[in-house]
Amino acid sequence: MISSKNKLFKSLVIMLVFILFINSFGVVSQAEDNKQVVFVNERELRAEPGAIDSNGIIYFPMHPLCNALGITAKPVSQDTYKLTYAKLNREITIAKGNKTIIINGISHQLSFNVMGTYPVGTIEEYMIPLKYIVEQFGGEVNFAPELKRIYVTGDAPIKFKDKALEESVRALTKKPVGDIYKFDVQDIFSLDLSAKGITNIDDLKYFENLTYLDIRDNKISNLSAIENLKGLTALFVKGNDPSLDVFTPIAMFYENIKQTDISFDVKLDSNLELAIRTAIKKTTGKIEPKDIRGLAEFNASGKKILSIEGLNYMVSLKKLDLSNNSILNLGPIKNLTKLESLTLNKNGISDISALSKLQKLSALDLSNNKIKDLSFLKDLKGLNVLKLSDNVITDAAPINGLLNIKELYLSNNKLTDTFGLEKLMNLNTLYLKDIDPKDPKKVTSAIPKEKLKVFKDLFTKLKKTDLTKEEVGVPTVTGVTYSPTKATITPTPSPSTVPGDAILRYYIGKSTYTVNGLEYKMDTGVAPIIRNGRTGIPVKYIAQHIGASTGWDEKERKVTITYGSKVINLYVDIDYAMVDGKMTKLDVAPFIVNGRTMVPLRFVTETLGLETKWNEANKEITLIYKKINKKNK
C-alpha cells in the first residue's frame, strides 16, 4: 500500500515539474510528428525529450549536447552548472530559471532563460538553449524546417570569403591571428567598412547585433547577407555595383532604418500606379514600399503599362500577371524570388535574363513575345507549365533539362529540331506545330533519326497536343514481335498458367539456365553477356517464366515487355526507356548480338519487381520471382 502511495506521489511530482517547466519556459506541447531531429557533426544525436520549442527558442538536453561537442559540464551548486571548453579557453556559468549568463567571468543579460528542466521518466533533464550555447562555444547551428532537422557543427570558425573584410574585422576585434568565431563579433554594434576594397560581405550574417553599417565605396554586388541584421538603424551603401539590389534584403525592416543614403521613393508608370492603388485599396496619398511589400498576388493584365519600375518592392509576390501590355524591361522583377506563377504573354519582350534566379516558378507564360534565347531558363527546375508559343526561338536545348515540365507550348517558332525534348518524361501536353518550316506537315523530318523512336512513344502518351499521328509518323498498327527476323508475339499467359514462385539462374556466356532447378536452353548462339560493365540478356528467357509477354517492332527496333498493366519499351542503341509512358534513363542501351536483342538485365528485372543477385565467383545471376509480385501488375 505504501509502495502504491509512493508511486502516486512520484507521478504527481513529475506532473508538477512538467507544469512548472511549461510555465517558466512557455513550452507548447509538440506532437511526435513535429519534433525536430538534431544532428551534431553529421551524426544524429538522440536524447529524451529531444528538441523543444519554447517561444521560438529551441532547447535541448544539456548533458548529451555537451558530450557530443566535447564540452565539460560540472555542477557548481544545486541547479547551477559550469560549462567549459578547454580548446577555446571558454567557460560559461548558467543557472536554472535565470536569464543571466556568466561568460569568462563577465555577466550578460539575456531575454530568455539559460536553463530549465524537463521530466524524463522519474528524473529531470536539464535543458539549455541550443543555438545560443553552441555558438558561445564556437559552433554553428543551421535549421532545416522543411526536413524537421537541426544541424549542429562544433568548432566552426568564420571562414571569411573576403580578405579585405577579414582584415577589418581582425583590427576591430584585436585578433590579428587565429580563428575568429561568432562569439567574437556578437558585441560589435557599429561597423565602418567604407572604401576597403571589399567585394563580398556574405560573412556579415554573423554580426546579428549590428545597428550601424557603412559599406560605401566598395565593389559589392550582393547584399543578401544583411537580411538577418534586423537591428539596423543606419545603413550606407552608395558607391558599389550600380545594379545592387538594396531593398529586397531589408524589405521587412527598412522603415526602422533612420539614417541612410538609399532612396525608398516609389516612382511608378501612371497605369501601373492605378493598378496598384486598386490592389491595395489606396486611392490617394503617396505609395510607400511598406504598402506593397506584403502583396502575394498582383494582376495588371491589359493596363497599357510601359514600365514596371517599383515592382521590385513587391518582395512577397507569389503570383504576377503582366500580360497584354507593352513591357520591354523585366529588370525590376529579377529579385522577386518567391514568385511561383508569372504571366508575361503579349508584350514586346526579347530579353528574359531577369528570370534566371526565379527558382520557385512552377508556371511561366512567355508566349507572343520576341524571345529567341532560352538559356536563362535552364536552371528553373521547378517549372511544370511553360508557354513559349509565337516567339522567334531557334534552339530549345536549354529547356530539355527541365524534367518536371508537364505542359510545354512551343508552336509557331523557328525550331528545326526537337532538341532533346524527348527527355521530358513527365510531359502530358505538347504543342509543337510548325517545328520545321521546310515541311510544316511532317514533324518527323525535323527530328534526328536516332531520337525519332523515343519521340514517337512520348507522343503516344500525351493527353493534349496539336500534332497528329500522321505528322509524327506513328502508324495505326505497330508490330509486336520479339525476334528481329520473325513477326510473332509471345502472348501473356492466362491466369491459370501464370507460374508461381520461381528462382531463375543464368550464367555469363552460357546458353543453359535453370528455373526452380529444371534446366532450359536458349537458342543457338544466345547467352547472357557483359558489355560496358552491365549484363545484357534476351528478355524472352525471363518473361516466359513469370507470365510476361514480349514483342519486337522491326521498323522501330523496339522491344516491348508487357507484365499485367505494366508496359516497358526499350530501343536498340538508345539509352532511354519508356515505363508506363514515363521516360527513364538507362545505364546502358539495348544492343543486338547474333541477331538477338540484349536488354539491360538489372533494369528490366527490378522494374518487373524481381530480386537480382550476382555471384562474381562463377558469374551467376540469380533472379527471385515471387507470385505475390502480381499485386503490382
TrEMBL record:
Domain Copper amine oxidase-like N-terminal: 40-151, 515-622
Key words of the record: Leucine-rich repeat, Repeat
Record carries keyword Repeat: yes
Signal peptide: none
Keyword Repeat: yes
InterPro entries recorded: Cu_amine_oxidase-like_N (IPR012854), Leu-rich_rpt (IPR001611), Leu-rich_rpt_4 (IPR025875), Leu-rich_rpt_typical-subtyp (IPR003591), LRR_dom_sf (IPR032675), Mao_N_sf (IPR036582), SDS22/Internalin_LRR (IPR050836)
Pfam families assigned to the protein according to its UniProt record, in alphabetical order: Cu_amine_oxidN1, LRR_4, LRR_6
Protein origin, superkingdom: Bacteria
Name under which the protein is recorded: Leucine rich repeat 4
